[in-house]
Amino acid sequence: MPFGCFALLAQSGNFVIYRLMRGLKHHGVEGQAVYAFHEYATGSHRVFFDVCLPEGAPPARFHEHMRELPGPEGTVVPVVYDSRKPRRAKTGVRKDLDFDKERPVVLLVGGTGLVLLGIGALLCLVDAAI
To answer: Where are the transmembrane segments (predicted)?
Structure first.
């Protein structure tokens, strides 16, 4: 059971990226975002962007980790954002979205983790019954 929990925890970061990219692939809208500000975070920058939405829509801000800044504050960059939740976004264009690297990791490690977790729970139930 602990091995299953560890496997699920180990792939959780890839699972989050996979879900974001899959959502952007299916519901993504190309648009623009304005570079607002950044924070330095251990060898990279956490860069915050404001998505340019149609008038009347609530503002949406998202961040990405980048090695280099996209330019001075106020720089406009292309972005793909989820039409349902605009704060789920990624810089770039839709055709460049690629989540093929995360899919095998999520399926292999996550599936193995679920199987190990199930076997561990089953063994606990069998041991408790005896």
So the answer is: 105-126
